[in-house]
Design a protein that fits this description.
Elements lengths: L1 E2 L3 E2 L2 E2 L5 E5 L6 E6 L3 H20 L2 H17 L1 H12 L8 H17 L5 E6 L2 E9 L2 E5 L5 H14 L3 E5 L6 H13 L5 E3 L4 H9 L5 E5 L2 H10 L6 E5 L4 E5 L5 H13 L9 E7 L3 H12 L20 H16 L3 E4 L14 E4 L6 H4 L6 E7 L2 H9 L3 E2 L1 E5 L3 H9 L5 E4 L14 E2 L2 E2 L4 H6 L2 E7 L1
Parallel strand pairs: 1-5, 8-9, 8-11, 9-10, 11-12, 13-14, 13-19, 14-17, 16-17, 19-20
Antiparallel strand pairs: 2-3, 4-5, 6-7, 7-23, 12-22, 15-16, 18-21
Helix pairs in contact: 2-4, 2-6, 3-4, 3-6, 4-5, 7-8, 9-10
This protein binds nicotinamide-adenine-dinucleotide.
The site of nicotinamide-adenine-dinucleotide (NAD) has 28 residues, from helix 7 and helix 8.
């Protein structure tokens, strides 16, 4: 059974209280995490604040080297971190599961370390010189969710420290263990206080959002909580990056080959059991190939094994927690009650399991709750359309705007539709394929700001213009 410490100022914090963390595959206890209170949070913020002057003043190249050293450290512990992750999150070790997630965390760390942050000369002539410098903000608070806990923590922490900030990171109380171990490993290579961890209840996130000495919050989680973060950070005029929920639409054009696109559609929707912010969550298919796409997807789904993340043949794990399971189950029930036709899977009546069958529902009802709301789980509604303008209008008729996709053999036609979709990323013939050099973020209720690439890195800085 795992038990890791909160790392504050480079050493384990003295916290006697703890809380249990469960393995969603077995519902047994996976480990314990320290239950920090706001007094401990003060210590973490003070440590980050004290470390900031030295960390922000060192040569930029040195910070690049520190980030590379973190990547090496994570590589050395790849298997160990993946095992902890599967124990608490449930995702399979193999495929696009825990080994993949730790691999992604390493790749993002390496890429972010390699980015340059040059001073930009805006003007240099007889009237004077104007330089634009990028200055770190100070202490950055990172608040992460339970779906991709390690990768998302890396997305927050590495750009923040790479650009000279120090960090207090609060993982989700549902999956704190892998992040705690990762931050412990980071502390083996970083100076004390540069990255600090804190675990406990949601109230810690609220206290971080309101904290005077935290200059920015990077938050990944639900829209509802994102609004609370924004509201409680108003008093201190904090900088914010909010990566929130989505309800991504995919549009399949009539020239697509149903059998060929079925695996891509499936994994676009069911990666991490659908518990992915930019997963395909609503699929609009032209009526001329609608039944063939439904059949091809159901056939592909029947080949996928759902099971314990530690079983070798598992491709999808359980839903991570009971609240999310109940939400997905209810949406599936509501959809069926409102005319949705089950193609495979369906609601579950067993209260003792968190395993949920891969569920595909054919529906023509635009008000189907499974279409309107983010399911964040293994259930996909498939909706027919006859006019592409109606499909685009339906895709955009949602408060969220994270990702979208268009499926066609005619790339130019697909791109023209992509431009009309209201979302931060659009993929052609795939869905959700993020990468470290491409800015990623949502529009509308899906968030504020971007992560990744140069733009994501610079979001951790303030601009200072020097006129000479
Ligand atoms: P959540 O909002 O419930 O929790 C996220 C984090 O916020 C947790 O660490 C939680 O402890 C903390 N928190 C709770 N109340 C808080 C408060 N008042 N102030 C500050 N922090 C608080 O989200 P979740 O259920 O863990 O994650 C699922 C959601 O996250 C989904 O909607 C999903 O789409 C979204 N998500 C978005 C992205 C993205 O990049 N856009 C990525 C992953 C997940």
């Amino acid at each position: 059974m795992y038990r890791f410490d909160n790392y504050i100022n480079g050493i384990p914090a003295d916290i006697s209280a703890s809380f249990q963390v469960f393995n969603p595959s077995t519902t047994e206890i996976a480990g314990h995490a320290p239950k920090a209170d706001t007094t401990i949070l003060e210590q973490a913020v003070a440590a980050a604040h004290a470390a900031f002057p030295v960390w922000s003043a060192i040569e930029d190249q040195q910070r690049q080297q520190y980030c590379q050293a973190i990547a090496t450290k994570l590589e050395e512990h790849h298997q160990e971190l993946a095992t902890i992750l599967t124990s608490e999150q449930g995702k399979p070790m193999q495929g696009t599961g825990s080994m993949f997630e730790v691999g992604g965390a390493i790749a993002w760390t390496q890429y972010t370390a390699s980015l340059e942050m040059p001073v930009e000369v805006l003007q240099d002539d007889e009237t004077g010189k104007v330089e634009m410098h990028r200055k770190p903000i100070g202490v950055i608070g990172s608040i992460t969710p339970w779906n991709w806990p390690l990768m998302i923590a890396v997305w927050h922490i590495i750009p923040a420290i790479r650009s000279g900030n120090t960090v207090v990171c609060k993982p989700s109380p549902l999956t704190p263990l892998s992040t705690l171990r990762m931050i412990e490993l980071m502390n083996e290579v970083l100076p004390a206080g540069v990255v600090n961890s804190i675990t406990g209840g949601d109230e810690l996130g609220a206290a971080m959002s309101a904290h005077e000495q935290i200059g920015k919050i990077v938050f990944t989680g639900s829209i509802e909580t994102g609004k609370k973060v924004m509201s409680s950070s108003a008093e201190t005029l904090k900088r914010l990056t909010l990566e929130l929920g989505g309800n991504d639409a995919g549009i399949v054009l009539p020239d697509s080959d149903p059998t060929e696109i079925a695996p891509g559609l499936f994994w676009g929707a069911f990666l991490n059991n659908g518990q992915t912010c930019a997963a395909l969550k609503r699929l609009y298919v032209h009526e001329s190939i609608y039944s063939k796409v439904c059949t091809a997807l159901a056939e592909f789904a029947s080949t996928v094994t759902v099971g314990d993340g530690f079983h070798q043949d598992s491709e999808l794990g359980p839903i991570q927690n009971r609240m999310q399971f109940n939400k997905v189950n209810q949406l599936v029930k509501d959809s069926v009650n409102q005319g949705g036709k089950l193609l495979t899977g369906g609601p579950v009546s067993d209260n003792n399991t968190l395993f949920f069958p891969v569920t595909l529902i054919a529906t023509s009802n635009p008000n189907d709750p499974l279409v309107r709301e983010e399911q964040f789980g293994p259930a996909l509604p498939i909706i027919p359309y006859s006019d592409i303008n109606d499909a685009i209008a339906a895709a955009n008729d949602n408060p969220t705007g994270l990702g979208g996709s268009v499926w066609s053999t005619d790339i130019n036609a697909a791109k023209n539709i992509a431009f009309r979709m209201e979302c931060g990323s659009v993929w052609i013939n795939k869905h959700g394929a993020i990468q470290p050099n491409a800015p990623f973020g949502g529009i509308k209720s899906s968030g504020i700001g971007v992560e990744f690439g140069k733009e994501g890195l610079l979001a951790n800085t303030n601009i200072q213009v020097v006129f000479s």
